[in-house]
Design a protein that fits this description.
With about 210 residues, this protein is mainly alpha-helical. The chain contains 8 helices and 4 strands; from the N terminus they run αβββαβαααααα. A two-stranded antiparallel sheet has the order 1-2. α1 packs across α7, α3 runs antiparallel to α6 and α6 crosses α8. The relative contact order is 0.17.
């Protein structure tokens, strides 16, 4: 079964949103998403000289894409949770919260039918929805949409993702599986590339996925 759902855009969004001391406005979310508080849509570069002000760029949040990515991730995560709930019910186990589902998966104490196993293998394959490449791409796309591509927010989004990953580890109850570690590394590399393209100097990415 795939666990990349708990390292998806939603956890990074929540961590980033909580860290931002900016105004919020209510946006009507896309299908499967209820009304939620979004961060302010425009970021203004600070401490500009009079000369640079004439060339300043406003980075507007792509609210439509943010809501689309959130809705897509939440729909796929719900689909995964429904499958696990069915497994738990069949095997005589109960669940009360989403955390119960992740703990059930973390235990490894379950069996799956052939069809479920085949679908899970497709989902986490190299070209699968929960595979490393697609998951890391969605997280980066989400970061760009949320900040409007503002290069000054790259490190904020990196930190938000790291906090989201730490939250996922707590939800899982320990070290995440290999696919999640690989996704973490892929996201860090893509943030490094974004920073490099923006002409920023970054510290070597700390490897938090190994002992």
């Amino acid at each position: 079964m795939s666990v990349n759902g708990i390292t998806s855009t939603s956890t990074a969004y929540e961590a980033y949103q909580a860290s931002q001391p900016v105004k919020t406005n209510t946006e009507t979310a896309a299908a499967n998403v209820t009304a939620t508080e979004d961060v302010a849509a425009v970021y203004e570069p600070s401490k500009e000289s009079e000369t640079s002000k004439s060339h300043s760029v406003n980075y507007a949040q792509n609210t439509e894409l943010v809501n689309k990515l959130k809705a897509d991730a939440e729909a796929h995560t719900q689909q995964l949770q429904n499958i696990v709930q069915q497994l738990m019910t069949k095997q005589g186990q109960t669940y009360n919260t989403a955390n119960d589902i992740w703990k059930f998966l973390a235990s490894g104490n379950f069996t799956v039918d052939a069809a479920t196993k085949e679908q899970a293998q497709k989902d986490i394959a190299e070209d699968g929805y929960w595979g490393v490449e697609q998951t890391s791409d969605r997280i980066i796309d989400f970061a760009k949409a949320l900040t409007g591509g503002d290069p000054s927010k790259i490190e904020d989004m990196r930190e938000a993702f790291k906090k989201g990953y730490e939250q996922a580890e707590k939800t899982w109850g320990g070290e995440l599986p290999e696919i999640s570690k690989k996704t973490y590394d892929a996201v860090m590399e893509k943030f490094d590339k974004m920073a490099e393209e923006a002409g920023q100097t970054t510290k070597p990415t700390e490897d938090t996925t190994t002992n």
